[in-house]
Amino acid sequence: DIQMTQSPSTLSASVGDRVTITCRASQSIDSWLAWYQQKPGKAPKLLIYKASSLQSGVPSRFSGTGSGTDFTLTISGLQLDDFATYYCQHYDGLPVTFGGGTKVEIK
Amino acid sequence: QVQLVESGGGVVQPGRPLKVSCVASGFIFSNYGIQWVRQAPGKGLEWLAVISYDGDDIYYADSVKGRFTISRDNSNNTVSLQMNNLRPEDTAMYYCGKDIYPYHTNGWTTVDSWGQGILVTVSS
Fold it and tell me: In chain A, count of helices (H) and strands (E)?
């Protein structure tokens, strides 16, 4: 199985900050990577698919880059609504697997 | 708009079965595969199973293979997950989700909409 490793596991930031979360795959997954946002008690919400494609309705302050094994999710100008946990997920084969999550907390 | 609603969760004793269902609306259900993932309390997301748009292609995670069965009824816009021989470690919130791409058959896809989830608790 492909292992997805996210860092950091927790991140403290302030409103307006630029935030970067990284995700590393244990083998190349081309660009078959998605990013999800999850708030407590809610379902995950798709932000980015195919590494850099912004899902419809998602604010443009979210962006994704990377290919192969190394990927990043950037939030440019953190908003109060962005404090949540973020997961990466590969879908370059089965089983699809998720990273362990990055919790973005208020500093 | 796309909507998926899970039902059928609850408390069940170890070794007993339970069936959870997912009713979809707001899109052409018969064109899209459906996936199930779960999230144990305070933990991350675990993919469980996927069924193709026509039900012909089904894939499972090793952790549930042989115990869980996914099926779909395109006439009623419903996907079900039959869970047998449940274990305490199956305790989790279960989410169904719609594939982002239509007509996908190999399961190598991601989800663009999830249901609100249904809680399954396995305990004596």
Answer: 0, 11
Whole-angstrom Cα distance, residue B55 to residue B76?
13
N-term to C-term CA, chain A: 36
Strand partners, A36: A46, A87
Per residue in B80-100, pLDDT (tens digit) is 999 999 999 999 999 999 999
pLDDT one-digit tens code per residue, B10-32: 999 999 999 999 999 999 999 99
Q: Report the gap between the CA of B20 and the closest CA in chain A (Å).
A: 16
User: Which residues of chain B lie closer than 8 angstroms to A98, CB-CB?
Assistant: 44-47
Nearest Cα to A86, choosing from A104, A74, A65?
A104
- B107: which DSSP letter? S
Determine, for residues B44 and A100 on separate chains, whether the beta-carbon distance falls below 8 Å: yes
